[in-house]
Design brief:
47% of the residues lie in helices and 14% in strands. By secondary structure, it is α+β, with helices and mostly antiparallel strands. Strands 2-3-7-6 form a four-stranded antiparallel sheet, with no helix packed on it. A three-stranded mixed sheet has the order 1-4-5. Helix 11 (316-339) packs antiparallel against helix 12. Residues 349-357 have low confidence and may be disordered.
């Protein structure tokens, strides 16, 4: 693995910096810097800016409208985006269902869905988890019964992020009952305005509306919205989940933005006459996190290098997911520690630039509790590593 950047790659870095400097406005920068998650409309606005620049799909091949960037270019972009406090792109469409569509979907599906993902016009949500079928996803019970040129869908999904704003949902459904529960599952693309779909909000610990329950009551879905072959959905879903865990390679690069905020706050807080950042105990905790971040960044670079060489990284996506999720939890804990009693404040984001206080740290801390659960609980990821890497 070559860690040196070429002259062309350094020129690309300068291009990225110039774009981010011109396009990440003050309110958006402050929102990301203080740990708040932009709302879907704000992320879609960012996606439109990326689309106008020709950068709407950094990980897609050019033939499907992507940038065709190398993994190294993607690494450079994500590193610079973290430094600029740029928002993340809408990954449910770009990183999850989009690649599944252009790999396994029909030409009609590609023509219908891919342009709207690229432009930010469409917002996708993921219909996977159900009550009783979370980490054990193969136990899902939502049924889709073929009726002429439609499937009739009945069932329930849960923990569906931003279903309240979504235009589309990709759903794993059971089209046939088989002795092996991973069989008989299919992947459907469903418009959220289809009659019979009901969304019920779930308010999480951070007192925000991120996730939902989604109910399907006699929902008629055109059979042409089936991705690939009927009954092969489990295989497509596994590819999608591997991609979701692999996104941790990019997430690892964004950890540095949290550390910078913690350092800013710790330098401003006085404890026994000196800055908290100067206290040995606090500095030790921060140094340990930074060392582990460097190791995680190295793993991310190795994963990207494997991707560039066409090498299978095995369960490294699971390894990245575990380390990234645990580190971001520890970083936000340290952030709350740096704020002391002020961390108890939890206020909505107001759009005020360069605020003196950070009343969003507790919301960020609470929200990050979920990172060790979503995308497959870390306990499950350890089982995957044991099975795929150690042969246990």
């Amino acid at each position: 693995m070559n860690l040196a950047f070429s002259a062309a790659e350094e020129a690309f870095r300068q291009e990225v910096r110039a774009f981010l400097a011109a396009n990440v406005d003050g309110p958006m920068r402050e929102m990301v810097r203080t740990g708040m998650r932009p709302e879907p409309a704000e992320i879609q606005a960012w996606q439109r800016r990326m689309h106008a620049q020709g950068w709407s799909a950094p990980t897609w091949p050019r033939e499907h409208g992507g940038t065709g960037w190398s993994p190294t270019q993607y690494f450079i972009y994500e590193t610079e985006a973290a430094r600029a406090y740029a928002p993340v792109q809408p990954h449910q469409g770009l990183e999850l269902i989009g690649p599944i569509i252009f790999t396994y979907g029909s030409e009609a599906q590609k023509a219908k869905y891919l342009p709207r993902i690229l432009s930010g016009e469409a917002w996708w949500c993921q219909g996977y988890s159900e009550p009783g079928a979370g980490s054990d996803l193969a136990s899902l019970k939502t049924r889709a019964v073929r009726d002429g040129d439609h499937y009739v869908v009945n069932g329930q999904k849960i923990w569906t992020s931003y279903a309240q704003a979504a235009t589309n949902i990709f759903c794993l459904v059971r089209t046939e009952v088989k002795p092996r529960k991973q069989e008989g599952i299919s992947l459907l693309l469903i418009d959220m305005d289809t009659p019979g779909i009901r969304v019920r909000p779930i308010i999480t610990l951070d007192e925000r509306h991120h996730v939902n329950e989604v109910f399907f009551d006699e929902v008629r879905v055109p059979a042409e919205n089936l991705v690939g072959e009927e009954g092969r959905g489990w295989g497509y879903g596994k590819v999608l989940l591997d991609r979701e865990r692999g996104i941790s390679a990019a997430g690892a690069l964004r950890l540095a933005q949290f550390v910078r905020v913690v350092k800013e706050r710790a330098a401003a807080v006085r404890d026994s006459g000196s800055a908290l950042l100067a206290q040995p105990d606090f500095r030790g905790k921060l140094a340990q996190i930074e060392v582990e971040m460097l190791a995680l960044e190295g793993m991310s670079l190795r994963t990207l290098a494997d991707a560039e060489a066409g090498v299978d990284s095995g369960p490294r996506g699971s390894m990245l997911k575990i380390r990234w999720s645990e580190l971001v939890q520890r970083i936000t804990e340290l952030w709350a520690e740096a704020l002391g009693t002020d961390a108890a404040l939890m206020e909505p984001y107001t759009g005020v630039e360069a605020a003196d206080e950070m009343p969003h740290a507790m919301a960020a801390y609470l929200h990050m509790r979920v990172t060790t659960i979503y995308g497959g609980a870390n306990e499950v990821q350890r089982n995957i590593i044991a099975w795929r890497a150690l042969g246990l």
